[in-house]
Amino acid sequence: MSFTQYEPARQRLQRSELAVPGTNTGMFEKALKCDADYVFLDCEDAVAPDDKAQARKNIIEALNDLDWKGHNKTVSVRINGLDTHYMYRDVVDICEQAGNKLDTIMIPKVGTAADVYTVDCMVTQIEQAKKLDHKIGLEALIETTLGMANVESIAQSSKRFEALHFGVADYAASCRARTVVIGGLNPDYPGDQWHAGLHRMLVACRAFGLRAIDGPFGDFNDPDGYKDAARRAAAMGYEGKWAIHPSQIELANEIMSPPDKVVEDARATLEALEEAAKAGKGAASLNGRLIDAASARMAENVVKQADAIAAKGQ
């Protein structure tokens, strides 16, 4: 291992992340009681310009009145982009009026580290002024070519940072990709056209201690397509995926949870290496395979996630 290492950000279970428009107040109670690990209340793309102010008020009320923590939910708010005049009011009003109930702020369309710095500065001053008793985390959407070009510096831009999300729809638009499909495979492309971007963002996340979350899959009438996309992301190392419809929550939880057989193999690997260490050996054989310290690190990742899921009771 390099002498230079970055401590992991706060660890949270984030297999499924339900998107809830700030204008859809009827969804708030349902989101509270659903099986999603994470819920983000949206001020941005899912809200029309004329409804921005009301959506912000709805979100503040939902944060204050609903018991998100008691329902074992992490709750985030996606603010509007820094290129809009809505953003500053989102940050100021939501943090000042409901900051103690908010786990993270999601910043959309982040292009440079300075974008994150701006929000971090605002949140820090509000926390100090309002004497908030907990630290609000930050997450960012990488959904433009500028953001992907700067993803490594973005990942290092704030001590509040917890996660990066891959926003495939805006990323496709930014790339001028020939598609109008959100998150699905393009039959004209040999393979997964988003693999390179997904992998680059993943590496930035893991290098600098952040969670890596895959974004939306637009066709909620195609559960098999959703599961295929989630499997590809999970195989790379992503730990969660968005659900833009309640029907996708169960699919995300299923695919982003390590299979029982994988967990069994991981626990067996750790046990075999523990026995080998007692015998003064650094490696061992398990089911005809060589296992060593690298095997242990892989196994520990699986076991930690399985234990977090078990602790939640799902």
From TrEMBL:
Ligand binding (substrate): 78, 143
GO molecular function, one term: citryl-CoA lyase activity
Binding residues for Mg(2+): 143, 170
Entry-linked InterPro entries: Aldolase/citrate-lyase_domain, Citrate_lyase_beta/mcl1/mcl2, Pyrv/PenolPyrv_kinase-like_dom, Pyrv_kinase-like_dom_sf
Required co-factors: Mg(2+)
PANTHER family the UniProt entry points to: CITRATE LYASE SUBUNIT BETA, LYASE BETA SUBUNIT, PUTATIVE (AFU_ORTHOLOGUE AFUA_4G13030)-RELATED
Keywords (A to Z) from UniProt: Lyase, Magnesium, Metal-binding
Entry-linked Pfam families: HpcH_HpaI
Chain segments annotated as transmembrane: none
Name by which UniProt lists this protein: Citrate lyase subunit beta/citryl-CoA lyase
HpcH/HpaI aldolase/citrate lyase domain segment(s): 16-246
Signal peptide: none
